[in-house]
Structure formats: structure tokens, C-alpha cells
UniProtKB/TrEMBL annotation:
Keywords: Oxidoreductase, Porphyrin biosynthesis. NCBIfam families: PRK05330.1 (NF003727). Its EC number is 1.3.3.3. It is an enzyme of class 1 (oxidoreductase). It comes from Maudiozyma saulgeensis. Gene3D superfamilies: Coproporphyrinogen III oxidase, aerobic. GO terms for molecular function: coproporphyrinogen oxidase activity. The lineage of its organism: Eukaryota, Fungi, Dikarya, Ascomycota, Saccharomycotina. This is coproporphyrinogen oxidase. Homodimer. Belongs to the aerobic coproporphyrinogen-III oxidase family.
Length: 328
């Protein structure tokens, strides 16, 4: 499968890199508009491997306890072990073999990956945590011939307290962004998110979902790039109004404790199931601090904690155990 370009003759990988750099600036400036502190940059390189990234980090603000809006642009060799680990989720990814021996080549495959990944943890338990990630991946065989390419990503919301109007707002704006291109995308990617963000050992989802897709190369790459751009553009209008409405709400110590318990679920999911975390930790020379940026500063595990029946906490658990259709 040839590495894609479009009528501008710029490789799609270069256009995606330019997009994530632009969106990192827009998103951080938008989030700063509801806080009293600024994001600070942390540039990093992969050492002897190719590429690097820029992490934009915020902590101990008036609204956000911890967060990061990170971009990475990395390339090099994906080891045979890395190829095997990713093969189940990426059907076109192949491990080349030596034509003389029939054995897998030791160097694996050459790859390029770029993306923006963001997680924001607010202080107020009535404000939801949010996550966004959009990425692009390309591989080549050792002889330089193209192998495959795909896009992936999505955005989702993880509240500690369920406000149905917030869930409807977040989902509706992301649905509208996708409907401009193909009305079949939101139902499919919303269902995928509900399945992907399932904490299997708990029987509940991480939050109230959003969108998720991966290994996507079913349309022209230029069209997919525009789908990604429109999805990016939906994020700030879908999230900032919620934060503005909830960030100054009074809360109790018990509500804060519940938020920490829910953050514990967030940690469980990200360390056990999240593909991005697993890929990042498998990639030689990767930036561990940026990969684990998604984890909250504080979380809690309370033995066999069960919210009271009929409580607001129980209402949230019902929504995570039985995903609903939120978009209008």
C-alpha cells in the first residue's frame, strides 16, 4: 500500500504533523482561558532514535489540577516484537521475512508515527476529566518499499458526577463533526469507544464515552485528514462550556473522595488496557514522562467501595455499566 500524498504533493504525514502542531497551540490557549496558570513546554528527543516531541503541561492551576497536551513525531525501526504485539489491532501490518531463510528480519519494519494526545484532570469533582488523541502511522519494508498506513484516535469524557446535559453536549458536537463526512461514522465510533474504554475486570467503562477509531484507511487519506481536523475543531466547543459551568461549583469532602476513587479506575484502565500507553512503552527511546502524563496526580482505592443505592454516585456507575446514546 503506497504511502499517501495528495494534490499538494505533500506527504500526508507532513500535513498531519503540521495539523497537530497547530492544534496543540489552539487547544492549550483555549484551556488557559479558563485557568489562571499557563501551560509550560517540555521539548524532548528520542536520543539515538529518530524524532521527538513537545509536551505542554499544566499543574496546580485554579481549574486544572494536572494536564498535558502532547505531540510526538517519531520514526525508526519497529522491532519484530513490536510488530507482533500490534498485529492483532492492525491487520495490514506485516513482519517481513528474509527471502533466503524465510525467517523474520531482525530489524523489523521502518515506521513513522505522529499524533497529539491530551488528558486534562480538573480539581472540581463536578468537572469531567477529558481525553483526546489523534494519530497517524506509516510503515515501510526494510528495502524502503511502502507497507501500510492508518489513522486513529477519538475523544471521550470521564465525569465523576453525571450531568446528562453535559454528556449530550459533548457527544452531539462530536457527532456533528463526523456527520459532515459520513453519517455512519459516529454510531460506529461511539460503539467502538464504549467497547474500547471498558474496564473489563470491573465490568464498567472508564467514563461516558465519546468516539474511538483505529487502523482506519478505508477512505482517501486527504478525506480522513479532514475528518481528523473537524474532530479536533469540535473539542474546545464541546468541553470548555462544561468547564465554565462547573469549575466554581461548591463540593464536599465526600464528593472529592469519590472523584479520587473514579480516578483510580482511570489509572487501572490506562495502565492495563490503553493501546497508546502500551505502544509508547514498547517504542525504543520513547518519552516515559509524556506517556504517563495521562495519570492523575492523586487517586484512591477503597476496599469494596459501594455507593448508596439511588445516590448520584450510583447513577454514574449505572451509566458506565450500561452505555447510553447521548447525541441529539
Amino acid at each position: 500500500m503506497p504511502a499517501p500524498t495528495d494534490s499538494t504533493h505533500l506527504p500526508i504525514r507532513e500535513q498531519m504533523e503540521a495539523l497537530i502542531r497547530r492544534k496543540q497551540k489552539e487547544i492549550t490557549e483555549g484551556l488557559e482561558s479558563v485557568d489562571t496558570v499557563k501551560f509550560h513546554p517540555d521539548e524532548w528527543q528520542r536520543g539515538n532514535d529518530g524524532g521527538g516531541g513537545r509536551s505542554m503541561v499544566i499543574s496546580n492551576g485554579s481549574t486544572f489540577e494536572k494536564g498535558g497536551v502532547n505531540i510526538s513525531v517519531v520514526y525508526g525501526n519497529l522491532t519484530p516484537g513490536g510488530v507482533v504485539a500490534m498485529k492483532n489491532d492492525h491487520a495490514d501490518l506485516e513482519l517481513p521475512t528474509d527471502p533466503n531463510t524465510g525467517l523474520p528480519v531482525a530489524e523489523g519494519v521502518k515506521f513513522f508515527a505522529c499524533g497529539l494526545s491530551m488528558v486534562i484532570h480538573p480539581f472540581n469533582p463536578h468537572c469531567p476529566t477529558t481525553h483526546l488523541n489523534y494519530r497517524y502511522f506509516e510503515t515501510w519494508n526494510p528495502d524502503g518499499t511502502p507497507q501500510t498506513w492508518w489513522f486513529g484516535g477519538g475523544a471521550d469524557l470521564t465525569p465523576s458526577y453525571l450531568y446528562e446535559e453535559d454528556a449530550e453536549h459533548f457527544h452531539t458536537l462530536h457527532k456533528q463533526a463526523l456527520d459532515k463526512h459520513d453519517t455512519s461514522l459516529y454510531p460506529k465510533w461511539k460503539k467502538w469507544a464504549d467497547e474500547y474504554y471498558l474496564i473489563k475486570h470491573r465490568g464498567e467503562t472508564r467514563g461516558i464515552g465519546g468516539t474511538f477509531f483505529d487502523d482506519y484507511n478505508e477512505k482517501d487519506p486527504k478525506e480522513i485528514l479532514k475528518i481528523v481536523e473537524d474532530s479536533f475543531d469540535a473539542f474546545l466547543p464541546s468541553y470548555l462550556p462544561i468547564i465554565k459551568k462547573r469549575k466554581d461549583m461548591p463540593y464536599t469532602e465526600e464528593e472529592k473522595k469519590w472523584q479520587l476513587i473514579r480516578r483510580g479506575r482511570y489509572v487501572e484502565y490506562n495502565l492495563i488496557y490503553d493501546r497508546g500507553t502500551q505502544f509508547g512503552l514498547r517504542t525504543p527511546g520513547s518519552r516515559v514522562e509524556s506517556i504517563l502524563m495521562s495519570l492523575p496526580e492523586h487517586a484512591s482505592w477503597v476496599y469494596n467501595h459501594q455507593p448508596a443505592p439511588g445516590s448520584r454516585e450510583a447513577k454514574l456507575l449505572e451509566a458506565t455499566a450500561n452505555p447510553r446514546e447521548w447525541a441529539k
